[in-house]
Amino acid sequence: MTALFLKNQITTNMIYVFIDASNVWNAVKSVKKFIEYKTLKDYFRKNFNADKVEIFYYDAYPKAGTRDYDLGGKHKFFTYLKKGLGFTVRKKELKRISVIGESGESIIEKGNMDVEITIDAMHNIHKYNIAIFFSGDADFLALVNYLKNNGKKVYIFSSKDNISHELKTGGDGYFDLKDIHEFWGKDLKHREKLV
Known about the structure:
The chain is an alpha/beta fold.
């Protein structure tokens, strides 16, 4: 019993970061700059006194042939995060749902990654003592409460125009992405359309 208890104790300051790309994208569009993901680990080491930082990135991407721009850059970005920065990348193709209405057929795309984020946070619960969520979705409040009740510190990073009141006040602290200048890099540019 004692050996098992000691095995599950975290002796260093371990941070696991869970990034909901769709939530972050709203801040990116507002600031009109890209996030410099290569700065994140250093930021958390310095500002949260972390010994180790693990970052998970979650994103859904469009099906090939559904956009008038090249999707190759998105997949290269996933590779850069994974191989270049050591992130764990969870990705899936956007689900396309046909909806018939009064004006005919339309397509709705869905790519929610909440379940994947929750599974990773729960599966790794004994590996970290601080969880950081880049999301403003109130659906995460139950997960945040569970982690806090299990002795974890939980911090929320989002933007004021994309954060639910429940999540903003539910964690141990809230940070507005727009106010963290060291996160921001190159100017956001419009994609070139395929010819």
